[in-house]
UniProtKB/TrEMBL annotation:
Belongs to the FMN-dependent alpha-hydroxy acid dehydrogenase family. Residues 23-426 form the FMN hydroxy acid dehydrogenase domain. This is Alpha-hydroxy-acid oxidizing protein. It holds the Pfam family FMN_dh. It comes from Dactylosporangium darangshiense.
Amino acid sequence: MTARIGPGRLRQGIVYREGTLGSRPSVPTDAAELERRARRRMSRAAWAYVAGGAGEGATMRHNREAFDRWRIVPRMAHGIVERDLSTEVAGTPLRAPLLLAPVGAGALVRRDSDVHIAQGAAAAGVPYVLSNQGCSPMERTAAAMAGTPFWFQLYWSTDEPLVDSLVGRAEACGARAIVVTLDTTLLGWRPQDLNLGSLPFARGQGIAQYTSDPRFMQLARERAATPRTAPTRVTLGAIRTLLSMSREHPGGFWRNLRSPEPRAAVETFLDIYSNPGLDWSRLSTLRARTALPILVKGVLHPDDARRALEAGVDGIIVSNHGGRQVDNAIASLDALVSIRAALGPSPTLLLDSGIRTGADVFVALALGANACLLGRPHIYGLALAGADGVRQVVENVVAELDLTMALTGTASLSSLSPSLLTPAPH
């Protein structure tokens, strides 16, 4: 019986065969060159938003340094010729332990960004966590997933009916889970954006989930109809950006330049998008408001992880928001080790922040993650080649994970453990 060709050899074979015909991958297969080439394609504002971090960037460095503190120990003559990368997380079957993380305001990088990302994720067969700060309504992005599972990220608004409306829409369009992001009740100090005076949401980018929502539009229209003595300053450029979104929204809301509603929509969003007063008791109410699995994203402390489980969540995404919220924070990988040690083997833990390669995924899984979220790299692929760029980035990461498992004698994800790693020498 012939052994099944794994995704690692399959991807290598495609690249090398095309190479004999003089073709090279349109998306680099190494993380450093992927980042360099993507930067050349992006505007200054796009690069600042996507690649920038909080403060002096220490947390982003910590994320990478944490992976550097571990070494993989290959094993020989193990006789394993096939690997099983499949798993299930929060009731969602995965062909590989990888999901695409939510990244807001993707239209800074490419128009119709969310649709392109969804198409790339579907082509690669991995779920996408639809961003609450997306540039296309969730219904349109969900349709582009073409049956591939997806989750929905929720920023908990100060308006509770809007929370229910967003969750209800996610349920209606087929989301398999709700991911509540906890670490962005306020924006962190992001000098790259601040130095450019660039906040995409103030320009109407990344608020399509809101402007396509009936509850939000009710609030925006009420605001537009209310005289205000000191309105928030929103530029004509912002209104033009909003008008350019008309194709993605039903009706003619964005089509009248003289209407005060586009300005009111931006102002309303800036007022209510996230709730600084969110606490565990309020979070626990979500369990009775949706039948979907609930995960929380942004947890770094074992005590917070325990509180989340007590609040009824089904999984925890260990994340420092890619180093974008608190400077000099703990690395997500280090937090994963502490949380897994505190909670034991049963709870579902995912790792976000710092993942760049298949080897990184291997290390995270060996240290206790059930799956990983890939953030910036898929946006870099989007910048270089749209949906196909996203697909290539995902397939490269999965290929390297498969090959790393093969070369360490790991037949399945359940076989991954800290015994396959050793700490790096000091």
